[in-house]
């Protein structure tokens, strides 16, 4: 297998570990916990794993452990650092007993159900240390929610004598981990289930989880590209670049990239919803900034757009909620795609029908057609960047005829998504992910199940990081999915009263009018720590660093 010079150099990098994980540990327990919402319902659904304490690992006494086998699953979309979680887990279980084994299930949770797996040996692990992607075993989006899936899983876990299963994924994947942990605990099957917080979207975070892994690398990758576009924009001075960024349910990526690059405009979906802005309000906001810059002779700029923006416009959000219920109904299951739009028009309220009919045909069709495996609108397929630029152009044309706009407007469009999901992890993500995996081995050794591996205080040097675990049930609430109320991990949205957004809001008017672009450049892996080891602007602002 051919390797680049960077791959060869990165293979030699040894990720840093918190001091607390360098020797024997014991679990220091905090107070009992409860779920973030719907406490009685969640407690009733998870009686065996509800209310467990948050734990922190502290120095303990050395123990001799018998060999034990562990399974690992990569679930959902890729995120930089997944391979380091696996290598940290591998090194962790081997440090407890050299005869322990790690098995990887192929192509996500489906590999557990279909009994497709491979043993991950040191030779294999060493090929993937500090690399991007999930290609060591592949990933998948199979949902683990049916009893027959759990029972098929336990068959192979028993056959391989697996003591614990580690599921590396986002909020939906870790919801699956929580359900699986509860089922195996209720059945007294003796298999532990541990989760690890993954998603580049950054929406798997709370008081215990500072950030999901991959967010740092993805944002640095996108910020490099945005910086390059801004340099081009400032060179040619004739285009407005509309840049859509991944982040279906939250605007963390857009906000972080704005903090790194200082674009002229960055839309924050959560603010659009809080201000009850209409689609026309959003378009007017952009058009006003374009017109103001044109008055100074600057007919160019950059606009950052969160992928899920359309879902946060209140009128459209209300429409989508009703569409989801209508499309989840039994009658909707028996109609073809060609009949789907007519069907929803006949079954939604008059208010929502008016909104539906007001949308561009392409957007209306996408809202009414296929859902993702979780029952959500596939917003990444809606070309919001083109929709907004076309509507801005139309508004500016009207203003020009009325003498309210004196400039020129031409748009370029970009969508940055897959470009960041499998980038080689930054030093931060390489260290953070390795620590999460190593820490998971300690949760297993301490007999924990239904926990998520957590590492905190990550704006400090790695030696000072704090390792432990949080019960997954603590993050759960009930939400509407596919027409039914289901227990899920609550997504963390951008907090409008949080330090990152407040800083952005204090600067954006100046960025909109002036050209104050920052050019972050590519991720640096070697060199001064202030260049190579910086966490995200979001984390530094949140922790006042």
Biggest β-sheet, characterized? Answer: 9 strands, mixed
Intertermini distance: 42 Å
Average pLDDT figure = 95
Strand content: 15-25%
Rg, please? 24 Å
Unreliable stretches:
none
**What general form does the structure show?**
globular
- Give the strand order, joined by hyphens, for the main sheet: 1-2-13-12-7-6-3-4-5
Helix/strand/pairing category:
alpha/beta
Work out the helicity level: 40-55%
In DSSP terms, counting alpha (H) and pi (I) runs of 4 or more, how many helices?
22
Total strands = 15
List keywords for this structure.
single chain, globular, 22 helices, four-stranded parallel β-sheet, 545 residues, 44% helix, alpha/beta
Overview of this structure, please?
- The protein has 545 residues and is an alpha/beta fold.
- It has 22 helices and 15 strands.
- The protein has helices spanning 5-11, 39-45, 82-96, 109-113, 122-128, 147-159, 171-186, 215-236, 252-261, 269-274, 279-295, 309-312, 314-328, 337-347, 350-358, 361-368, 384-401, 418-421, 427-445, 499-513, 529-532, 537-542; strands spanning 25-29, 55-59, 69-74, 101-105, 117-119, 162-169, 192-197, 240-245, 265-266, 301-306, 411-416, 451-456, 466-471, 476-481, 484-489.
- The strands form three sheets. Strands 1-2-13-12-7-6-3-4-5 form a nine-stranded mixed β-sheet, with helices on both faces.
- Strand 6, helix 7 (171-186) and strand 7 form a beta-alpha-beta unit.
- Helix 3 (82-96) runs antiparallel to helix 5 and helix 3 packs parallel to helix 19 (427-445).
- It is globular, with a radius of gyration of 24 Å.
- The two termini are 42 Å apart.
- The mean pLDDT is 95.
